[in-house]
Design goal:
heterodimer; A: 214 residues; alpha+beta; four-stranded antiparallel beta sheet; two-stranded antiparallel sheet; 56% helix; elongated; disordered C terminus; B: 198 residues; three-stranded antiparallel beta sheet; two-stranded antiparallel ribbon; 7 helices; 63% helix
């Protein structure tokens, strides 16, 4: 059976990659080479990830229900939600852009929320074979999160440029703040999760098995 | 010996002669990248990125003209426009991810690489390489380039749109950052320091 650093009394430094021997003394040990605080697993990973995730779920609702952009032209004001803006782009024939917005602003954040929830499900850890799949999923989640910022930057560019009162002005709606918070919270959530937890249960189970048989 | 940061599997590190990416034998996670000339190349790429980043911050990203009136926006201008529109929090987020973090990422990398070039060990090397990794996570230049591409279509419908030099510079920063990230690895850096010190 494979050996995990924790079971061998070793701690990996995530900054410089040195394997440190776990000291007897209490408190957070520091890496012998670069001085980074060492943890066998990220501290309170499950609780922290859950807390950030729940906050992100809550804010995902206003982010999609409230208007994200308000356009004003000759006294006429229209406001769009994230999906509404994408539908408008589609209707204008700009479907590639519409797809970018739907994927980056709607699908990715939701997929991220579901993926992290699935990774946190305690029942899931009963299936040993899931560790490979879970780790792969985690790496995807951790990589794609930043791309959701697209809509925020588009908003910044439009608001910065389209200021031609009374012909055309663009303003941001409250959804922008909620959406920005969702992106930051899900990024923090994926960073506080520790994929090594996915590998813990199966290994521990196989280590205790011989003792139980004896 | 090393362990995988993703699954904690203890394994022997293969010795690579040329450039290589070392992956975990159990879960396929990246253990580290080792590129023989990485510090020098990364330094050159980072210096170039610093110059382009400066241009990207000073000049306008885009200029829009409607009925003889012109508006233009810079990177910081995006943040202040959001602040003026009553979205200070979003403005701060834009400033942090597009101006502050990329700038700190560049500075941290220079701090790590310049001393190595002249044969010294950087001050507070552990803390700076830790910080460099977090700066990298929150600096989102490439996402802003995608956003600019997306908004070109929308803005073009409103008025006459001109792409400013800063957007091209930002595109250059994106490519230089991607090239740097593909060869520079803070773990590999320690091997180079050890070699220098020996």
């Amino acid at each position: 059976m494979s050996v995990m650093a924790t079971h061998a009394g070793l701690l990996l430094c995530e900054t410089c990659g040195l394997l440190n021997r776990r000291p007897r003394a209490a408190g957070t040990p520091l890496c012998a080479r670069c001085g980074t605080g060492l943890h066998a697993r990220k501290p309170d990973a499950v609780v922290r990830t859950w807390a950030l995730l729940v906050a992100a779920y809550v804010l995902y609702i206003p982010a999609n229900v409230l208007p994200v952009l308000t356009t004003q032209s000759l006294g006429e004001e229209t406001s769009d939600t994230i999906l509404g803006g994408a539908i408008r782009l589609w209707a204008q024939g700009a479907w590639p852009l519409s797809v970018v917005i739907v994927v980056a602003s709607f699908v990715v954040p939701l997929a991220k929320l579901f993926a992290l929830t699935w990774l946190l499900m305690p029942a899931r850890r009963l299936f040993a074979g899931d560790a490979h799949r879970g780790t792969r999923l985690y790496r995807v989640v951790d990589f794609i999160g930043r791309w959701s910022m697209v809509d925020i930057y588009v908003g910044g560019l439009l608001v910065g440029l389209v200021q031609f009162y009374p012909f055309a002005t663009v303003g941001v709606g409250p959804a922008a703040a909620a959406f920005g918070a969702v992106v930051v919270l899900t990024m923090l959530a994926s960073r506080s999760f520790d994929p090594r937890l996915l590998w813990d249960t199966p290994v521990r189970a196989s280590r205790t098995a011989p003792n139980e048989g004896a | 010996m090393t362990a995988c940061p993703d699954c904690d599997y203890v394994q022997r590190e293969p010795q690579c002669v040329t450039a290589c990416v070392v992956r975990c034998r159990r879960c396929g996670g990246m253990l580290y990248r080792a590129v023989p000339s990485a510090p020098d190349s990364a330094l050159a790429l980072t210096l170039a990125a610093a110059v382009f980043f400066l241009i990207a911050n000073i000049l306008p990203l885009m200029t829009l003209e409607l009925y003889g009136r012109r508006t233009s926006v810079t990177l910081t201008g995006m943040a202040t426009a959001l602040h003026d529109a009553g979205m200070t929090g979003v403005g701060v987020l834009v400033f942090v991810t597009l101006v502050l973090m990329p700038a700190l990422e560049i500075l941290a990398r220079l701090h790590l690489l310049v001393p190595l070039r002249i044969g010294r060990v950087p001050w507070k090397i552990g803390a700076v390489s830790r910080l460099q990794a977090s700066f990298k996570v929150w600096s989102m230049v490439e996402v802003a380039v995608l956003a600019a591409t997306v908004s070109i279509h929308r803005l073009d419908q409103i008025g006459d749109l001109d792409i400013g030099p800063a957007l091209w510079a930002l595109g250059a920063v994106m490519i230089l950052f991607a090239a740097t990230h593909s060869i520079f690895d803070s773990r590999d850096l320690w091997t180079h320091y050890a070699r220098r010190a020996a």
